[in-house]
C-alpha cells in the first residue's frame, strides 16, 4: 500500500457512507474494507492508525449507539510477542450486538531485534486513540471517552495505559492480566521463572533476580493504580498468570478506594472464555456488558 493510499484511507469520513447493504472499499492489498448494513451499522476493517503494518484497527459502529456511549478499545493478548485482533472478535461482535461502539486494535509485537518493548506498544494504544478521535465526531461519539478492555498481555497494556491516562479512560477491564513484575511475591512464584525470558524482551532489560532493575517496577500496572474503575477476571487455576496477580491488584484498589469488581472463578485457567461456553455466556460476557453500560 502506498503512502498516498494510506493518507487517503485515513480521511474517509465515518457515517458518511450513504449506501445500504454491503459496501466495500478495497485497497491495493485487499486488507482495508468498510461494511455498511441495511440498518446503518458500520464495520471498518484494518483501518491504519500508523505506518507499521501492525498498526491497524477494526472499528464497529452500531447505528443506535447513544452519543454519550463510551468506545471500548479492545487489546488482544499473546505474550506481547504474538496474537492479533481477530482473537478478540467474539467480544467485539458481542458488544456490537448490544449497541456498544468498539475499536479492536493490532499493535507491534515485542521484539529485541526491532527494539520494540511495552513502551512502543503503549505508543500504539495512544496512536489508535488519536486516530479514532478524528472519527468520533463524524460518528456522533465523544472523543477521549474510552473503556479499555485487554486480555492477558493486552490487559497489562490496557491497565498500564488506563491508570496513567485517566483523562482518556473512563473504565478498565482486565481479563487474566499480569500486573506485577517486581515484588517479592512475584519473584518467589513459579510464574516469575517461566515469564522472565519473555519479560526481558518486553521490558528491554536483563532479568537479574538478585538485583532486579527498576524498569520492571515501571512496567508493573499495580504501581500506577489511579481512580479509574476496574473490572478484573481471574481464574484460580491460571498457570500462565498466577492468581496472586489479580488478588494483589484487588487489594491495592481496595486500599485506594477505587471502584472495582473482581470476578474470581473457581476451577478456571487462563482466558476461560475460549474453553467454557457456560462461563463465557453466563458470567464473563454479562459482567463485561454490565460494566460497560454503567
Structural description of this entry:
With 294 residues, this protein is of the alpha/beta class. The protein has a single domain (40-292), classed as Alpha/Beta hydrolase fold, catalytic domain (Rossmann fold, 3-Layer(aba) Sandwich). It is 34% helix and 17% strand. The chain is built from nine helices and nine strands. It has a nine-stranded mixed β-sheet, sandwiched between helices. The chain is globular and about 60 Å long. It starts with a helix and ends with a helix.
Q: How would the blueprint of this fold be written?
A:
Blueprint: H1 3-10, E1 33-36, E2 42-48, E3 56-61, E4 71-75, H2 89-97, E5 102-105, H3 118-135, E6 146-151, H4 153-164, E7 169-175, H5 184-187, H6 190-203, H7 214-218, E8 230-235, H8 243-255, E9 260-265, H9 277-292
Parallel strand pairs: 4-5, 4-6, 6-7, 7-8, 8-9
Antiparallel strand pairs: 1-2, 2-3, 3-5
